[in-house]
Amino acid sequence: MRFQTGNHTGYRQFKGTRATAEQITELYEGLCQSHLTDFDVMLSGYAPSAAAVEAVGAIGMDLQRKAEKNPGSFFWGEHGPRCTSSVLTNNP
């Protein structure tokens, strides 16, 4: 299950749209209300703003808390150096 699909514009091509922190949070709240948060893995990708990073971080922490009763049942990671806006990392 994905919140948003797309990739960083630093690649040759890109698809998808930027989700705001509010949209990310709203999507997760909808999943929670529907009891659809039994994830084994959360792969976070490109985050276009500090607020989006914070929203994804809050979701990851919530999922980790939910998995505490079964240690090792949840993994959270990101993929590659282009997962965070250059504004946040000081990398072009």
Question: How many helix segments?
Answer: 3
As a percent range, the share of strand residues is: 5-15%
Biggest sheet strand order reads 1-2
Mean pLDDT: 75
Taken from the alpha-carbon principal axes, the silhouette is globular
For the termini, the CA-CA separation is 30 Å
Helix proportion of residues, in percent? Answer: 25-40%
Give me the strand/helix succession. HEHEH
| Alpha-beta classification | mainly alpha
Rounded to an integer in angstroms, the radius of gyration calculated over CA atoms is 14 Å
Number of strands: 2
Main sheet: strands, sense, barrel = 2 strands, parallel
Low-confidence regions: 79-92
Family: Belongs to the pyridoxine kinase family.
GO cellular component, one term: cytosol
Protein name: pyridoxal kinase
Keywords: ATP-binding, Kinase, Nucleotide-binding, Transferase
Which properties best describe this structure?
92 residues; disordered C terminus; single chain; globular; two-stranded parallel ribbon; 2 strands; mainly alpha; 37% helix
